Amino acid sequence: MLINFVYIKRDTPVHRLDPRVKWILLFAYAFSVMQTVNFWFTLFGFIGAAFYYSQAHLKWSETKRPWLFILFLTAILVFVNYFMSGGAIVQGVDLSHQHILYMLPFFGVTAKPPFITTTSIIFSVESITFLLTQAMRNISIAMLALPVTYTTDPGLTGVAFNGMGVPDKLSYAIDLSLRFLPSIVRDFGTTLDAQRARGFEIEKMRGGFFGKVVRLAPLLVPVIIGSIVGAEDIINAMELRCFGLGKRSWLTELHARQIDRIIITLSITLFICVTFLDIIGSIHTQGALHFLHTQGIPLTK
Amino acid sequence: MAITERQERSPSRIWGIGVRQIVFMALGAALYAGVSYATNSLQLPGASNVSLRPGIVIPVFFGAVFGPWVGLFTGGVGNLINDLLTGPIYWNWDLGNGIIGFVSGLALFITWGRYRSVRNIITAEIFGVVAIIVGLGFAAYSDIWVSALTPLTATTTEFVPATIPDLVLSIILLPILLVAYSAAIGRTGRA
Fold first, then answer.
1. pLDDT tens digits, B115-148
2. B5 lies in some domain
3. Which of B50, B81, B157 sits opposite A177 (nearest CB)?
4. How many domains does chain B have?
5. Which residues of A touch B81 (CB under 8 A)?
6. Do residues B34 and A184 lie in contact, with contact meaning Cβ atoms separated by under 8 Å?
7. Residue of A38, A177, A221, A233 to mutate when probing chain B, most B C-beta within 10 A
8. Is B8 part of any domain?
């Protein structure tokens, strides 16, 4: 059994970015966009994320599988969320004066038996705007997340996290786990073949759900316990080489360029500003400072 | 170097991060990612359209045996590596898996990593159940802010479908692993 990371080695503007930049940008944007339901802010972020993704030059054929999963998951979450809440999903926005376009007869959930009742789903300008905002939010975060895996060498993950302040030991553990991975998958394949030779058929497991779970044990237990016992040699080797007694150096050193520093600064500034405006907007319920808590649709009441 | 019982049962044994913990962190994360990847590609048949994710027992097991920090790393980084193998990164689910391992590791305060008695195995089981509920609860309900879901949607589309199969897997597989581990360690003389 082979294992392959999705990393694609290529020379693009995003590939040339420091790995730390991609992680910081992803988290700063995700934590910022989470704090608002404003359509225009989310649209601005969506356009920016789309531009960033375009600079990675990833082909549809290379990313089709994760994108289909992301789009499917987004559609499920957005529409299931809408129907299960009866159209009243807009968060943090005053819905007392909705501009209702249509009402669709549907089922709703109640707290009293029989727990299901007939109700109407409201399709209003506000709720449809929120649907779009929610979808843009999820897809824009995905457009920042996918380049992290497709354009970053997995071998640089440990040194990148060390560069972001993670202690040496934990960063080394991240590197070590990536080195263990091919061995684990190879052992899994070997164990599977050995058990198949003894009549274990994983594709044709009999029994109900519980029976199938129990029948997984001959596959999992040898791999896990065998790996733990084998790790004792690695522990001894590392202790004999005085691992952890001094500051660690890395074979690969990351050097941030001017563009990397600019993007990191802008990302952190964005997050701080959005958080500040979010807090201030909670206190000032009117006016410009409150804009992150409004959808920004210019409708009259 | 001989270790006294007081040293063996000291808080540093639970919260300390030495060479052993680093190696088992890395091993646990690799096992969690590798088993998840391998069982995904095998497309395990489920029952009643419920897919099996047997790797969930790994952060619970590693937490219960090696401590909360090892469990946290196994679950969090293991899930992150699995994301690196499949494409999209869902940070709140990575953190939720880390919480599973961390809470499982709190069983060490009672069991001290020894699972030769039924009492200790049951203790680990109870902590594992609580850990899965807390960890997957965090992951699912944080999507209320991350993906702007309603609590009802987060419960019905994420929390319940993820938690119930994982609870069953952990409850059935964890004792098997603990007994096998105790037997293996007994033979190596590290018991």
1. 999 999 999 999 999 999 999 999 999 988 877 7
2. no
3. B81
4. 1
5. 177-178, 181
6. yes
7. A177
8. no
